[in-house]
Design brief:
alpha+beta; 42% helix; binds adenosine-5'-diphosphate; binds magnesium ion
């Protein structure tokens, strides 16, 4: 069920809706937040049976959106900036129309018809998954269990391969041929990421990165020879943190759900809308297997090659299942993987250098493991940073 708010002075839960000069969506003059009744009022527009005293609980606030749990039944993702949830709304609706159970069920979307700006998504209302954790928790737990000899390899890499293939088959229905300059643009974008990462890195991390720039650059240059292919609106930000596990029976006693179709937060809003190759999502997810392997080593407080050996097996299981399940194999060009993975690794490191220094160790581990050193600068082996006792 969808709903639209409109009029010259539209209100949500009795508070006036507005867009400020920076494009921020405000309710009653403020950004919406859990407890103010805005998410509840929005949920009541599209879901039956939510009472007007239903409880709101906060889950996440990023720069662009606010997600609130209402009545322990639904998640209301309220747009922070005009138009920021249109892409996610369109993709979720297409997946829901195709009957996908790879995503959290979509209850509906609330749109806002604005007298000057046009019509845009105000909120997306989806099924709440009680007990859900994201992959930075559950996948790390699984790899730690493998490292401690407590567990067999988990079954989820193959399961995710099938889920991602189904999502790509649905979203790829409107795929278009790449532009003639796609290969050139891809090399330019990835090379720029490598240059930025090299410029920002420091200390031991910089030495290890510098010693691997030749092999990273070679992987990136391989994008230049890529054949024309197909592009479509991919997930765009597909990593294990966007895979929720909640109690269920998909595999490993869990249900796995893919969330957050906002697109790549590192791109400008206009670029996020652009179509891209399926291999971009696959590369992004495979890199996150390596990052999980790094986090697991931090958790066990030792550099343990068994973590990356697990990542190798997980990667093979994912790719086999993905290829096997993809009904439109022309969507996936695996020759793009080395270049896209190199780009993702250096972009991850650069992001950490700028915003999250405590995260540098993870892409550093993956770059160090995946790319041979030219030993131009003296370097030390990667070791995990100290981890607080748990
Ligand atoms: P963001 O764009 O801010 O990353 P997400 O859509 O990825 O927002 O959601 C952020 C977090 O909220 C998730 O990592 C998860 O912990 C929680 N979450 C999102 N959707 C659900 C859901 N349907 N059920 C339970 N928790 C959810
Ligand atoms: Mg997001
Ligand atoms: Mg997210």
């Amino acid at each position: 069920m969808n709903s639209t708010v409109s009029g010259s002075a539209p209100t949500v839960g009795g508070s006036l809706l507005s867009v400020d000069g920076d494009g921020r969506v405000l309710v009653g003059g403020r950004p919406p937040t859990a407890g103010d009744g805005v998410a509840r009022a929005l949920a009541r527009l599209v879901v039956h049976g939510i009472r007007d005293d239903a409880v709101e609980r906060a889950i996440s606030v990023d720069q662009t959106n606010t997600s609130v749990i209402v009545d322990d039944r639904v998640v209301v993702k309220i747009v922070g900036r005009w138009a920021a949830a249109d892409r996610a709304g369109d993709l979720l609706e297409r997946l829901a129309a195709a009957g996908s159970d790879d995503i959290a069920a979509l209850h509906g979307r609330v749109e806002w018809r604005h007298p000057e700006l046009g019509t845009s998504t105000l909120a997306l209302v989806t099924e709440y998954l009680p007990g859900a954790e994201d992959g930075w928790t559950w996948a790390v737990d699984d790899v730690v269990a493998v490292l401690d000899g407590r567990g067999p390899d988990p079954a989820w890499p193959a399961l995710l391969g099938r889920r991602v293939a189904r999502i790509h088959d649905v979203l790829g229905a409107g795929a278009v041929p790449t532009g003639a300059d796609a290969a050139e643009l891809r090399v330019a974008r990835a090379s720029a990421s490598l240059d930025r990462a090299l410029a920002a890195a420091s200390g031991r991390v910089r030495a290890r990165l510098h010693n691997r720039r030749a092999t990273l650059a070679r992987a990136i240059r391989s994008l230049a020879g890529s054949a024309p292919g197909l592009e479509f609106p991919i997930h765009g930000d597909l990593h294990l943190g966007q895979v929720l596990a909640s109690p269920g029976d998909d595999a490993d006693g869990r249900r796995y759900t893919i969330i957050d179709f906002d697109g790549d937060p590192q791109l400008e809003a206009s670029d996020r809308e652009r179509a891209d190759a399926a291999a971009r999502d696959v590369a992004h997810l495979l890199v996150s297997f390596d990052l999980v392997a790094a986090v697991a080593q931090k958790r066990v407080r030792r550099a343990d090659p068994a973590a990356f050996a697990w990542a190798d097996r997980a990667r093979a299981a994912f790719l086999d299942a993905y290829r096997d399940a993809l009904r439109h194999p022309e969507l996936f060009d695996d020759t793009l993987l080395p270049g896209f993975e190199a780009e993702q690794l250096v972009a991850e490191l650069h992001y950490a250098d700028r915003f999250l220094p405590g995260w540098r160790y993870a892409p550093d581990a993956a770059i160090t493991h995946r790319h041979p050193s030219t030993h131009e600068l003296p370097e030390e082996p990667w070791t995990p940073p100290p981890s607080a006792p748990t």
